[in-house]
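Hey team,

Sharing the DUF3168 domain-containing protein run so nobody has to redo it. Sequence (133 residues) first:
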Amino acid sequence: MSDALDVLQSALVTALEAHPVLAEALTGVFDGPPPRSAFPYVSISDGLTTNWSTKTASGREIRIGLTVWDDGESATRLHQLIGHVEDAVAALPRDLAGWRIASCVFLRSFVTRSPAAAWGGIVDYRIRMLSTA
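Structure output:
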């Protein structure tokens, strides 16, 4: 059985890279902040996985965050990119390799910036998956 988190992260990368606006605007989608990359880009968190099994199927609940990094003068472009990230996640296919997404719930988003750093727009989701294997 494929690990649900690995399958989900792969699906997220594919969805973000295939989104028409994000494909043009982002310099990449990464599993964590890259050592050197031009802005804007998205990093995907490691995710928190818990049991969500039923009597008849193995299941996982995954809390995962996507962070959009940007170095713009204001957060205007960042907010637009966050909206497109939300659209891409909402369009995730429900059937993945060995898993089916039972629910995908937006939890929160927020924007942060330290005076000497880039903008970070964090979007958190709770995604529940059931094994189809």
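The radius of gyration is 15 Å.

Ping me if you want the raw files.
A.
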